[in-house]
Design goal:
Blueprint: H1 8-11, E1 23-28, H2 33-44, E2 48-54, H3 61-65, E3 70-73, H4 80-89, E4 93-96, H5 103-113, E5 120-123, H6 129-141, E6 147-154, H7 164-179, E7 201-203, E8 206-212, E9 218-226, E10 229-237, H8 244-253, E11 259-262
Parallel strand pairs: 1-2, 1-3, 3-4, 4-5, 5-11, 6-8
Antiparallel strand pairs: 6-9, 7-8, 9-10
Helix pairs in contact: 4-5, 6-7
The protein binds 1,4-dihydronicotinamide adenine dinucleotide and the ligand O=C(O)C1=N[C@H](C(=O)O)C[C@H](O)C1.
The site of ligand LZUJQKHR has 9 residues, from helix 7.
Binding site for NAD(+): 29-34, 56, 97-99, 124-127
Domain Dihydrodipicolinate reductase C-terminal: 130-268
Pathway: Amino-acid biosynthesis; L-lysine biosynthesis via DAP pathway; (S)-tetrahydrodipicolinate from L-aspartate: step 4/4
Length: 270
Amino acid sequence: MTTSTSTPAQQDSLVPEREEPVINVGVLGARGRMGTEVVKAVNAAADLELVAMVDDGDWLFNVADAGAQVVVDFTRPDVVMDNIRFCIDQNIHCVVGTTGFDEAKLATIAEWLEPKPDLGVVIAPNFGIGAVLLMRFAQEAARFFPSVEIVELHHPNKVDAPSGTAVRTARLIAAARRAAGLPAAPDATKEADSLPGARGADIEGVPVHAVRLTGLVAHQEVLMGAEGETLTLRHDSYDRASFMPGVLLAVREIGRRPGLTVGIESLLGL
Ligand SMILES: NC(=O)C1=CN([C@@H]2O[C@H](COP(=O)(O)OP(=O)(O)OC[C@H]3O[C@@H](n4cnc5c(N)ncnc54)[C@H](O)[C@@H]3O)[C@@H](O)[C@H]2O)C=CC1
Ligand SMILES: O=C(O)C1=N[C@H](C(=O)O)C[C@H](O)C1
């Protein structure tokens, strides 16, 4: 069903030591690239029970009927809000890897959660531990470098561009720069003599470039420059198994984290 060569132990490297009751898990987007990997990882985890696999055209109520306590969503940006609404209505915790969230959508989800104080939604643009660390390192370094650009590189079937990770990284860098009193690079992507698009997308003053290439999975570089030196931070996901420890951590933790959590940094103790 998948091409991953990782072992269950590798996929479950953040498994807790303590004994916990089994958690019933439903997967939305179960036949997709990520959903397939999640199904495999949940099946390999002794403390998780896969109770429902739902894909496009399937009956969404299957997850509720099957008694899912946590749903994992890797679907599409245009359907994920409806899925989250459904899960909240059904009192099911939601771990969401699907991309495409802006502040307005996050605020809507927080509103939906208000009357359900015990329910949790975790939305993470990237569940890869290395990618989360890259974002943190980029934030740390941002105030020391006047120039910064992001290059994200993915498989050619990716639905969105730029990636959710690149958008979040750019916003975190921009916030760190503002906090340090650095100016946003003025019109960083709009040089007078450039072909439109040649300087990438402008996200809060950070140019973001998206590469789509057969052979790639998910990769990101943050390039920072100062007089006479550059710093390059790079992360590579060569296999979708790399996202699974983060996904399983969120599935196990969400019952203890009511409300909306964006990113898995807090779950990792960062
Ligand atoms: N947060 C993270 O760590 C990661 C996030 N992603 C994101 O996850 C999303 C999915 O990526 P892939 O798995 O590569 O896409 P994919 O296209 O392989 O899979 C999406 C699946 O969702 C299904 N689907 C569509 N509408 C549905 C609905 N209403 N209900 C249930 N299933 C539905 C599709 O039929 C498909 O099987 C994208 O937004 C991607 O950016 C991908 C990798 C890692
Ligand atoms: O679609 C993908 O593949 C990925 N999507 C996420 C994103 O948009 O950031 C995470 C990772 O980059 C893989």
